[in-house]
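Can you give me the bound-state structure? Components:
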Amino acid sequence: MIDATSGRKILLLSLAAGFGLWAVAFVALYAMLSIGCAFGWDRGSLVLGLSLQRLQLLLLLGIFLALHVALVVGLSARQQRSDTATDRFLHSAARLAAIAALAASMFTYCGTVLLTTCNP
Amino acid sequence: MLAGATVIFLATSLALAGAFIPSIRPLLTPKRLILWGGLVVPSLGLTALVAGAFTLGERLLPRQGAETLRIEVVARQFAWEFRYPGTPVATRDVLHIPVGRDIDFAVTSEDVIHSFWIPRLGGKIDAIPGHKNIVRLRADAPGTYGGICAEYCGEGHAPMRFIVIAHAPEDYEAALTSEAAR
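Here's the bound-state model for the whole set.
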């Protein structure tokens, strides 16, 4: 069973969850972009005129955006179940940070959809 | 960039003036400062910068076009060699380029990792043994530019410099011919 102090510690960590997820998405997308370019996945088209490189990056981006949304939904549900004013404040701050991180991911990773992935 | 910096400077000065001028103070409520100073203005600025970076980044990709010139760059301890495809010319520590044309530099190394950099023309790129990295640069004005090795490569790193001579288009071929005659 989680006591109040441990619960508060986890709650404090959840403040960084949104942008932590953003950072993990950054590393994953950057790594897969480099791997795809090294293996020539950007050449040719696989489905609907999209290359394997574009598809795998879009899939990865989709997974991370879904995780962002799940985090926001999860924090919203927890906020409604908060007992004390402090918990409600922390949940609210964590939820808003998670929403900001979702917006940041959509903004910074839109290049995955738009830009040339590898040097021609 | 200057216009953007001026607008940001004036807006920040106005916000600061609010602390001292009573007639402005009522306009600068905490909510407005947070909304405009913390969200709207940074978002607009960042969007403009990202859009500019995306557009310029695409333009800098080394796509082969009729107008694009390619020059091979080979780095070694502690000198630079430049080869001009289609000609027998190779120059050492002196690079000739034409003005007003995109040039793709295919950069490699024969020993350790170096870095090819002409600060006034743009970004640097690593010279890696067994690998070719390409950087697209362009000189808009004739003249002489300095180039350096931007990655520590041994005890001769600091003086491992080169000179870039940007010629008017009509003088470029003559410069290469003159180098070939040496």
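A couple of observations. Residues 65 and 127 of chain B are 24 Å apart (CA to CA). Chain B has two domains: 2-59, 69-180.
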